[in-house]
Structure formats: C-alpha cells, structure tokens
Design goal:
Helix content: 40-55%
Shape: globular
Low-confidence stretches: 1-41
Radius of gyration: 21 Å
Largest sheet: none
Structural class: mainly alpha
Strand content: under 5%
CATH class of one domain: Mainly Alpha
GO molecular function: chlorophyll binding
Subcellular location: Plastid, Chloroplast
Pfam family, one: Chloroa_b-bind
Number of helices: 6
CATH topology of one domain: Chlorophyll a-b binding protein
Keywords: Chlorophyll, Chloroplast, Chromophore, Light-harvesting polypeptide, Photosynthesis, Plastid, Signal
Mean pLDDT: 75
CATH architecture of one domain: Orthogonal Bundle
Number of strands: 0
Protein name: Light harvesting complex protein
Length: about 210
C-alpha cells in the first residue's frame, strides 16, 4: 500500500513538469516552421536517417504504415538511442570508476545490478516511471516533433539545402544507432569473457581473435 501511495505522489508531482498549453517549442528563434515539420509527411525513404552506406533500409516493411506510426517508430528509435548512449557511458564508468558510491557493488555492471537492494531497484523503477509519464504528456501535445521534448528545433536555422535541425537529427541518429550496437556488444562480451572489463578485453586481444 505504501508503494502505491508513493507512486501516486510521484505521478502527481510529475504533472508540475508537464506543459499545460500546446507544445510550441522555444521562443528564442523567429524562424517559422512549416506545419509539415510536426509530423512525418514525407516519403519514408526521404526521412532523416536514411543515409549511407545502407541508405533507405527497411527489409521488414515497417515504413509502409501511416504517418502516425512512423512518428512513433522515430520516437522509439531516438529514445532507445539516447538510452543506449547513456548505457555505454555508464557501463564503462562502472567498470573503472565509482563516482556515486565508495564501493559495495561489483565493478562488473551486469553483476552489480543483481546486488542492488530492493529499495534501490524500487527507486530506479519509480524514476523511470516518472520520466515516462512526463514524456508521454509532452508527446501528446499538438505540434510535437518526435524526440524534441523541449522545443530545441527552434534553436536551429532552416536556411540551406539541409536545415541545421536535420543535420543535428542525423548526427544523433547515427550516434544512437552506434550506441545500441555498442551496449549490445559490451553486455555480450561481458558474458562471453566472464565479466572481463571492456578495456582489458581490448588490451588482451579479445576482439582480434581470442584472449592472448
């Protein structure tokens, strides 16, 4: 019962962070955005992220759905990419440094999560729920652009053949995709090597034909 009350309190406090009006972005720029920029209305093959070397790559046919579904897929890709970028940094940090505590947990990130006490796991889940609630409220606002929670697109110029916002999105998508592959590789090699730190794996040649 206490857990339910605590979770309800978190959701109530989270509402204070949710914009009450339509999502209009940051007012710092006078650049006028076309209405089509708030939704994916272009052909999927022309969307930001369809770039070399694969170009437009959709073997499963996910892009054949309506614009709303494409927006949801782009939203999910950006969210997963951002989470993966943080995960890679956190994984490597946990293996080598412990800035938030003075020992007590394993330096093996995969093992450390099993050593967190139930109270700590509860706090993690509550915080994730708080973020998801706030984000879901922002996403529901009219004029929302996938991945842009604070109106950052208004900070970029539309001048030139490719807008600064498109360039920024492309860089973030590339880094997010690389990070998703990166954290998958880190966790996989952690299991395959029995928890050997990533930097030690590199120095011992795990990635170049086995441990030497």
């Amino acid at each position: 019962m206490k857990s339910v009350i605590a979770f309800s309190a978190v959701l109530a406090s989270a509402s204070a962070f949710v914009p009450s009006a339509s999502f209009v972005g940051s007012p710092v720029s006078s650049v006028t955005r076309p209405a089509s920029s708030t939704a994916v209305s272009m052909a999927a093959s022309d969307m930001v992220g369809a770039s070399a070397p694969l170009g437009f790559f959709d073997p499963m046919g996910f892009s054949k759905g309506p614009a709303e579904r494409l927006n949801a897929y782009r939203e999910a890709e950006l969210k997963h990419g951002r989470t993966a970028m943080l995960a890679v940094v956190g994984f490597l940090t946990q293996e080598n440094w412990h800035p938030l505590y003075n020992g007590g947990l394993s330096s093996n990130p995969v093992k450390a999560i099993t050593e967190v006490p139930p109270e700590g796991l509860f706090q993690i889940v509550m915080f994730i729920g708080f973020l998801e609630y706030v984000i879901s409220q922002i996403v529901a606002k009219p004029g929302y652009i996938p991945g842009d929670y604070v109106g950052a697109n208004d900070l970029f110029s539309e001048e030139g053949p490719h807008s600064q916002w498109e360039t920024y999105q492309l860089k973030e998508l590339h880094n997010g995709r690389a990070a998703m592959m990166g954290i998958t590789g880190l966790v996989t090699h952690n299991f395959l090597t029995g928890g050997m730190p990533a930097f030690e794996q590199i120095s011992r040649g795990v990635y170049s034909g086995g441990i030497h």
